[in-house]
Amino acid sequence: AGSYPLVAMGAVLSAQEQARVAIRLVPESLRHARRREDRRRTAVKGGALALAGVLALAGVYGQAAWQRKAYVRELEGRVRQLAPAAKKVALEQKLLMVLEEQVDKSGTFVELFGKMCGVAPRGINILRLTFTHAEGMEVEGTALSDLLVNQWTEALRAAGKQDMPQFAEARSVKTSRAEKVHNQEIVGFKISVPFPKPSVSGELDDVSGSSVPEPDEGAEP
């Protein structure tokens, strides 16, 4: 076996940190400086990763907030588009409620017919009555004179201004001479009673009946 110099063998053992005496040629201050630099780099890397995470979360939140705002703007646009139709529907519902209240008070056929007969003067004979729901009524019959037909029409219109708004537009649409009965001349008549309709503006149409000629003071029933 060959011989090796002791110095060389000691250098090898020192390099492998197997010698009894450790020989460090790097100054202690330099080693501390290197350790501080390593810790600083590790901290910088950790801070960069944390900042990247925060930025990623901020980006996700910003995207979600933008989407919510866009959806809110879309909903607001739809609300603006539907606002006129919604107002119209609310107005129609209000009108229906008004009409329902009127019908609840005096809207049935029996009540209308009872009120009509209640204001009829003596000498009126009803031959035919036509009733159309929410549209109106027509009454045909005979009377002892035109004066009685006019009085009945005026009485119906007067009731329309009080507690029977369905009668507000009552009008006589036809009168005709008929044969004499027991030497008494009678006239045929037809009275139309159209029911009021709601207007587009949100209120009921103004009801105004057609005027009827005043009877002569000397007319007799």
Short précis:
By secondary structure, this protein is α+β, with helices and mostly antiparallel strands. 52% of the residues lie in helices and 18% in strands.
Could you walk me through the main structural features you see in this protein, from its secondary elements to its overall organization?
- By secondary structure, this protein is of the alpha+beta class.
- Helix content is 52%, strand content 18%.
- It has helices at residues 6-15, 28-106, 109-118, 146-160, and strands at 124-132, 136-143, 171-181, 184-194.
- It has a 4-stranded antiparallel sheet with strand order 1-2-4-3, with helices on one face.
- Strand 1 and strand 2 form a beta hairpin.
- The protein is rod-shaped, with a radius of gyration of 52 Å.
- The termini are far apart.
- The model is unreliable at 200-221 (pLDDT under 50).
Characteristic terms for this protein:
alpha+beta; 4-stranded antiparallel sheet; 4 helices; 4 strands; 52% helix; 18% strand; rod-shaped
Run of helices and strands = HHHEEHEE
Class by helix and strand content? alpha+beta
**Main sheet characteristics:** 4 strands, antiparallel
Question: What is the radius of gyration?
Answer: 52 Å
Span between N and C termini? Answer: 164 Å
Overall shape: rod-shaped
Sheet with the most strands: spatial strand order: 1-2-4-3
Portion in strands: 15-25%
* Helicity level: 40-55%
User: What ranges have pLDDT less than 50 throughout 5 or more consecutive residues?
Assistant: 200-221
Question: Count of DSSP E strands?
Answer: 4
Average of the residue pLDDT scores: 76
Counting H and I runs of at least 4 residues, what is the number of helices? 4
